Amino acid sequence: MGDGRGVHEIRLGVYATEEEAAEIKRRITRLLCPDPDHAGPCPVPWSVALLEGEEDAYPELVEQARAERGADQ
After folding, report:
1. 3-class DSSP state for residue 28?
2. CA distance 65 to 58
3. Do residues 48 and 32 lie in contact, with contact meaning Cβ atoms separated by under 8 Å?
4. Domain segments of the chain as ranges
5. pLDDT in tens, 14-57
6. How far apart are CA 19 and CA 43, in angstroms?
7. Which of 12, 16, 58, 63 is deepest in the core (most CB within 10 A)?
């Protein structure tokens, strides 16, 4: 009988520049593995990826970002 583990995906939509997104990815990586030089694999295997061009997947986020940008101008 298994231990109930499986692959789970957590998605985070962020309206950001490429540089801002890369910094967020770096910070998430450090949260998941605060000691990248540890011996052996992480206790909970994980991976992180940075994708772009998914605006149609997050229409409310894009609308919010555009509204806030308009308010700043």
Report:
1. helix
2. 11
3. yes
4. 18-72
5. 888 899 999 999 999 999 998 989 998 998 899 999 888 767 77
6. 29
7. 58
